[in-house]
Amino acid sequence: MNKLTKRKINRSIRHSRQATWNIYSPESQIKHPIQLVKIMWRDLLASRELAWRLLVRDISAKYRQSFLGIFWAIIPAVVTAASFTLAKNNGIVNIGTTDLPYPAYVMFSMTLWQTFVEALNAPIQGVTAGKAMLARINFPREALILSKLGEVFFNFGIKLILIILIFIWFKMPVSTSVILAPVALIHLVALGTFFGLILAPIGALYQDVSQVITLATSFWLFLTPVVYPVPSGGGLFGVIIKFNPVTPLLVTTRELATTGIISDPIGFWIASSISLVGLLVAWIVYRISMPYIVERISS
Amino acid sequence: MINLTPEKVIEPSPDNSEVVLSVEGVSKKFCRDLKRSLFYGVQDIAGELTGFRAKSDKLRTKEFWALDNVNFQLKKGEALGLVGKNGSGKSTLLRIIAGLIKPDLGTVRVTGRVAPLIALGAGFNPILTGRENIYANMSILGLSTKEIDERFDDVVEFAEIGEAIDSPVQTYSSGMAARLGFASAIHTEPDILLIDEVLAVGDAKFRAKCNRKLNEIRSQGSSFVLVSHNVAAILGICDHSVYLSKGNMIADGLTDSVVRKYEADLFIQEQEIYHGKVYFEEKTPIASSGADIRYFCFKDIDGNIIDFPEVGEYVSFCVGCKIHQKIDEIFIYFAINDLTKDNESILVMSSRFDKKCIKTQLGELEIQLQLPCCYLRPGTYEMAIHLQKQNSYAFDIVSSLRFEIKDSHKITYLNGRNLFYHPRKWNYLTTKY
To answer: Is residue B163 part of a domain?
Structure first.
């Protein structure tokens, strides 16, 4: 059977199957939550292949236009680590002792922090880059987010090379709990995605949002134990750090990969629940807002 | 695909089982003030999320109805034309049908795969090769990798890209990129194709190929919604049409009558159509540059003034001139544009190129351009008349004179493919054995 007739048969099968109608009306979707969740799940499954395509497209385009290529994923962490080690060794900053060698501590933590920030920026970047497509084609909107998250994990994969090199260089022991580290990392990424996704609709309308995010993350970095260890004492600073949801997730990932002793399991589970529930809520917000965003960004 | 409201499965009732798209009382508000529009967007999202969206049938400040109570149905294998001026809401309607934006009132029901040909080459990345872009683009249009693999060769062949398929798209000519976009979109084999002014891609040969392909997929049962300013394109493809003006449905029904109504409105709103003899204001000898056009009229074979030429009949274009000075060589030319085809220039007739310039004396002069048979098809045209000296020095110009060509004897077929009327005879020579 040649290709053409085969395709015609496929086509007729498709036609005979078609009994489903897509209905577009002004009614709010939120009033039918069960169906909404069902459709969200269906679209998530449907968007996997497209997300993969977009991921391949974006990554190949990115590296074809770059001379240093994957080094850009590593360089920021190395530079930050180098400058803080220099500052610390010369007594410019006063940082308490860390349970890991300090340069390794900063580089590893910085890598985790970067992954969090990338996850935070991913949804807005995805929507902004996909504006032209969003305005013209009705594809599962989840694909944009999935492909960006894929990119976050891809970048982390490159950073992993750096992390492994650090472990070897500083002869750091690895406990068996390292196999659980990816779980904590996923929760960290989920937290970033939650914040990013809930801001994405507004971020697509107003440029201010990405400006605020850039500003906020650079400040946020200093409220998270990335370049310094978790402070033991109280005080306002200690409290802020404790209530920063990034802290338990980032610290636990680090601890699982290195010492294997989790200092704040309760904090970890609270932050994880916030991330996962928040992510679901943000997803609903994102889905429901999308037609309104498309309406405003493209006439 | 995203469903803007929860999906319901409706068994189509037997009498309208062939309906694939139904637009019922659809209205949509728009706002041209950007800041306000963004704010309304936030307001709508908030309303939608809480489920207490303010009733959307009231206009807020600076809003207007981009679409107001539009109704129509599309059956399987049918083609529907959307005509209307820019800003009449055609594209908005297409975007609601595609499920990109929600209607403020009313409902759209649609079944099967909808492919918007609004979006040629959406998601093309100039850095990547044509091959990679085909995969990305068709994937966005909703095909699985397996389906793309099956169609890949056809797409490349149709787009006439050849060897360049493995070069980055940024090295392509604009025509090549457009062809690739069209080829990718058309090979998704949609059930409903939304076409928005895209039939103008590529050169004439490729356009013809696109039209053939469209006919082919239509004969396989796909339905079209076609948006165009080009009335001829609509006439050639669509059985039924809807005429929108400022978001209102002015007319719907058979394409013929809808298009006629649209054209009538279009020209009435803009300018009076010329009938009978038209006089132009007389210039003072100082304002005049030597020779002035005084009047224009059509005359029939007996020299009587007529309101409009008839297809296939004798007509003469008569221009009355007043000459203020002796001129060695004066010539006249007529440039005619077809208003039903995007005001495209279709005919230029010049007495200079025909080597019929004359010397003038002071006084009055009537220049007659005699056409033994009017080849122009019925429709509305715009004419410019230039009265000139040889070195392109214009004495007087009449820039836009609208006139009609009528076909009272019904000798032409109303068909988008006939660009002009050719006089003809049929003859049958039979030989008996």
So the answer is: yes
Which residues are CB-neighbours of B142 under 8 A, at least 6 positions away? A139, B1, B113, B115, B188
Q: Which amino acid is at A255?
A: E
Task: Give B261-281 as a 3 state SS string.
Answer: HHHHHHHHHHCCCCCCCEECC
Contacts of A142 in chain B (CB under 8 A): none
In whole angstroms, give the CA distance from residue B216 to residue A152: 44
Whether B199 contacts B138, CB under 8 Å: no
Q: Please indicate if any CB of chain B lies within 8 Å of the CB of A13.
A: no
- Shared domain check, B26 and B95: yes
Q: Higher-confidence residue: A42 or B53?
A: A42
Q: Domain count for chain B, please give it.
A: 2
A88 φ, ψ to 5°? Answer: -70, -45
Average pLDDT per run of 10 along chain B, which is 433 residues long? Answer: 42 60 90 86 85 74 88 89 85 88 90 76 78 88 89 90 88 84 85 76 76 84 83 79 89 84 70 73 76 90 90 92 85 87 85 85 89 88 86 79 85 73 90 87
Per-residue pLDDT at A279 exceeds 90: yes
Instruction: Tell which A residues from 173 to 212 touch B, by Cβ distance under 8 Å.
Output: 201-202, 205-206
User: B35 and B159, same structural domain?
Assistant: yes
CATH label of the domain that carries residue B222: 3.40.50.300
Please give the residue range of the domain that contains residue B303: 278-405
B25-42 CB burial, b ≥16 within 10 A, e <16: ebbbbbbeeeeebbbbbb
> What distance in Å separates the CA atoms of residue A65 and residue A245, rounded to the nearest whole number?
36
Residues B188 and B146 in one domain: yes
CB burial string B268-306: b at 16+ within 10 A, e below: eeeeebbeeeeebeeeeeeebebbbbbebbbbeeeeeeb
Nearest Cβ partner of B48 from A134, A137, A288?
A: A288
Query: Does any domain span residue B244?
Result: yes
- Is the Cβ pair A36, B50 closer than 8 Å? no
| Domain assignment present for B415 | no
Q: Is residue B190 part of a domain?
A: yes
Chain A interface, mutation test: which of B24, B34, B40, B48, most A Cβ atoms within 10 Å? B48
| Of A31, A54, A136, Cβ closest to residue B136 | A54
Do B318 and B188 belong together in one domain?
Answer: no
On whether both B227 and B325 belong to a single domain, the answer is: no
Let me know whether B130 and B264 are in one domain: yes
Clarify whether residues B283 and B263 are in a common domain.
no
ipTM given for this complex: 0.79
CB contact (8 A) between residue A57 and residue B116: no
